[in-house]
Amino acid sequence: FEFFADELGVSRISLERKEPIHWKEMVNFLSAAASASAKHMSAEDIIRLRNNFMPLASHIIAYIPHDSSEELLALHRAGKLDLIAVGPDNRLSVEKTSSGATVSYLGKDGTPQQRHYDTFVDCVGQWQMPFESFPFKTLIEHGTVTKARLPFREAEKAEFVSDLLPVVQTGNGYELDLPGLSIDDDLRVVGVDGTANPRISIMSVPFIGGMNPDFSSLDFCEDAARMIMNSFERGPVIAAPQPITRPGCGPGLDLQ
C-alpha cells in the first residue's frame, strides 16, 4: 500500500504535466508486441513469457481511476482492507456457505489456510477457456478449429515440466497444450490441416488467450477489429490457403 500511494502521487504529477511515464509506456508496448508474437514462439518461450514477463507487465501497466485509488487507501488506513500473501503455486478455492464463503488457499510458506467472509467478490477478471468449452461443437468435430498448442524445441525440457504442465507427445516430439483455439496473425482459426480458415475469425478473448496472452484495454479491441477487417478486405481466397508455419519450429525468441 505504501508503493500504491507513491505510484498515485507519480501518476498525478504525470497528468498535471501532461507528460507520459515513458518507461512504463515501453513496457506496455513490449507486452503487446510479445503477445502478438506468442503464437510463433516455442513452448519454452511461452512458458517464460507467462511466468516471468506477463506478471511483471500486469503490475506495471495496470491502472485504476484516482478516485478509486484514494478510496482503497482510505479503507486500508481504516483497517478495513489488507493484502494476503500467497504462494506461487496457489489455487484459490471458494466454498459457499449459509453465512457467506470460506476461502481456502496456500500461504506464502506453502501451508494450507482458510478464512471465512460474510461477503466474497471474485475480481480476478476473465478466465481463459479450455478448447473443450468452445460452444460450436460441429466446428470441432469437422476439424475446422483445433486446440492451441506450441512445440518444444528440446525434449528434455518438455519431460522436465510434464508433471506441472499439460505436455503431449506427438509424432514430431512434444507439444504444450494451451487454453483455447489455434489462431493465425489475423485471428483466423486454424484447422487440422494447419491452414487458416479465410471465412472464420475469432476475437473472443477467453478462446484466444492461449496464443494471445495480453488482451487488455480498448487498444486490443481496436487492433483485433482492424486485423479482421483487413483480412476481409483482401478478399476471398481463390486458391487453397497456404499452410501456416508450425509455431515454434524455428529458433524461437530468446526472452531470458
Summary of the model, kept short:
By secondary structure, the chain is α+β, with helices and mostly antiparallel strands. It is 38% helix and 18% strand.
Question: What does this protein structure show overall?
Answer:
With 256 residues, the chain is α+β, with helices and mostly antiparallel strands. The chain has helices at residues 2-17, 22-37, 43-61, 66-77, 137-141, 155-161, 205-208, 217-233, and strands spanning 93-97, 100-106, 112-117, 147-151, 167-170, 173-181, 188-190, 196-201. It has a 3-stranded antiparallel beta sheet with strand order 1-2-3, with no helix packed on it. Strand 2 (100-106) and strand 3 (112-117) form a beta hairpin. Helix 2 (22-37) packs antiparallel against helix 3. The two termini are 30 Å apart. Residues 238-256 have low confidence and may be disordered.
